[in-house]
Amino acid sequence: MTQETRPSVLKAVNLGVTYGQSEAVAQLDFDIKRGEFVAILGPSGCGKSSMLNVISGLRAPSKGRVLVEDEELFTAQSKPPRLGYVFQSHRLLPWRTVRQNLEIALAASQVPRGTWEARIDEILSILHISQFKDAWPMRLSGGQRQRVSIARALLIDPSYILMDEPLSTLDEVTARSLRQELTGICQRTNATVVFVTHSIREAVYLADRILILTKGPARIFEDYKVPLERPRDYDDARIAEVEADIIRRVQAPWGLAMREESSVA
Amino acid sequence: MTSLQKQVWAYLALLLLIPAWFLAHQNTTFIENPVTVAKALPHFLSDPATWTNIGITLARVVFGLLMGVAAGFVAAFAMTRSRLLGDVLSYYVTAALRTPSAIAAILALAIFKGSEAGYVLVVAFITFPYMAVGLRDGLASADHDLDEMAQVYHLGLLTKIQHVWAPFVAPYIFSALRNAHALAWKVIVVAEIFGAAKTGFGAKFEHAWSYMIMIEVHLWLLVFMAIVLFAEYGLIRTAEKYVFRWR
Ligand SMILES: Nc1ncnc2c1ncn2[C@@H]1O[C@H](COP(=O)(O)OP(=O)(O)OP(=O)(O)O)[C@@H](O)[C@H]1O
Ligand SMILES: [Mg+2]
């Protein structure tokens, strides 16, 4: 398949994270290729955010290595990675307008200044928030703020984009429209995305591949390729089927006994 | 009520002070008739000496405040940097915070013998703990989430100071500044009176009082209140409104 020939963007080798005595991430190995959308699924507290902290360069791993575009992170010579990060909360500067928030991120990036204006206009129009260009973040709805946060992550030409449950605080209707926009924009820009979520259906709808983690400390339980072509429909029965299939698989590793089994026991 | 209506009511309430003043005048010996005071006001205000004295006091307040703010900043940063220094400084700040301004004024003047430095330093000494404590609280509650965002997006140090940290501590700075400003005016007048200053608002007020020139006492008091109110509402609150326009 074409997948194997694509260059590697983000690679983890034998990655582990410990806090003092307690192990949050036991061992992770994965290789994410250019243009891939990879979802991360795992039970609460298994170490997903800890993993993101490491692959975003915010925190050095306790063991193992991270490679971004084949260059090692966390060595003395390594440059910090160029990434976009959509946090669970928007993390915009409330005292800067939407445009200023985007410009501050652009100013710290390598994007040439002459192209900023056009880029900002384009991304805002793709995300349907052009009319809020000069608005204060406090005057926007949760969904609109999260769109700005997505715009900021995409604008700076990142090697890859991390998203930590970015839609979990939004109402379902807003989340749906954002999911749809997200698939469109990621395909169009060929973005490489790591997307942490608790919603299995969301993962199935969005991702090319799902890394299913074990209970904490996290290991990779299964590298699951989503067997659905695009475009996808969130209400498609096949998405529900794949979702049910995954739920079946994770029962044991996530420590959830199935009803029949528990009644027998 | 609309905000305009509220303002009108506030001004009407202020006008009630005039009949109260008049009643006080009729029932006491020292309170002048407000009409007499009003008649004397134009002459008083057109006298250049009035403005020279106000300017001198204003300069003492401004320089003292600037020094106090600068010292407060240094102390606050030191307190957040090192634990030992933080503990030592916080005792010092607590002690300074509770020192009565009259005592600070007398001490400063005893040391500086009523020189100009004494007036400025006493204002600085009284105001700096407010800045230090306010700023320290602001820095202590700094937003870790925005710091992470700044790190992920590689914001430079200057950008971080200007766009992440300064706006975050701004509310603390403003409330500290308002306290410090209010106190600065109180203490400067005390210092000018105690220091037997020849110039400045406190000196003139004291002079008028000791010679029982009651009209002048009233006039100085009125002008003083007008200036303090202008500094508070015209300058500090206006700046605050502008800085916090995103809210
Ligand atoms: N800064 C920290 N210090 C100590 N322990 C931590 C720290 N951050 C996380 N942990 C622990 O590490 C484990 C993994 O936490 P993490 O936040 O990575 O989980 P998660 O998979 O993101 O959970 P959730 O799905 O609830 O967001 C947890 O047991 C947590 O208590
Ligand atoms: Mg998490």
**Unreliable segments of chain A (pLDDT under 50, ≥5 consecutive)?**
260-265
Largest interface (CB within 8 Å) is between:
A-B, 25 and 18 residues
Total strands of chain A: 10
What proportion of the residues of chain B form beta strands (DSSP E)?
under 5%
- Seen as an oligomer or otherwise, the chain set is heterodimer
Number of helices of chain B: 11
Largest sheet of chain B: none
Largest sheet of chain A: 10 strands, mixed
Alpha-carbon distance between the two ends of chain B: 22 Å
Shape of chain B: globular
Amino-to-carboxy terminus distance of chain A: 45 Å
Strand order of the largest sheet of chain A: 5-4-1-2-10-9-3-8-7-6
Low-confidence stretches of chain B: none
The SSE string of chain B, one letter per element, is HHHHHHHHHHH
Q: What structural category arises from helix and sheet content of chain A?
A: alpha/beta
Basic shape of chain A: globular
The ligands found in this model are: adenosine-5'-triphosphate, magnesium ion
Order of helices and strands of chain A: EEEHEEEHHHEHEHEEHH
Average pLDDT confidence of chain B is 89
The total count of strands of chain B amounts to 0
Can you characterise this structure?
The complex is a heterodimer of chains A (265) and B (247). Chain A has 265 residues and is of the alpha/beta class. In chain A, 33% of the residues lie in helices and 24% in strands. A ten-stranded mixed beta sheet of chain A has the order 5-4-1-2-10-9-3-8-7-6, sandwiched between helices. In chain A, helix 2 runs parallel beside helix 4 (142-155), helix 3 packs across helix 4 and helix 6 crosses helix 7 (237-250). Chain A is globular and about 50 Å long. Chain B has 247 residues and is an all-alpha fold. Helix content of chain B is 85%, strand content 0%. Chain B has eleven helices and no strands. The model of chain B has no long low-confidence stretch (mean pLDDT 89). At the A-B interface, helix 2 of A face helix 8 and helix 9 of B. The structure holds adenosine-5'-triphosphate and magnesium ion (MG). The site of magnesium ion (MG) has 2 residues of chain A, from helix 1.
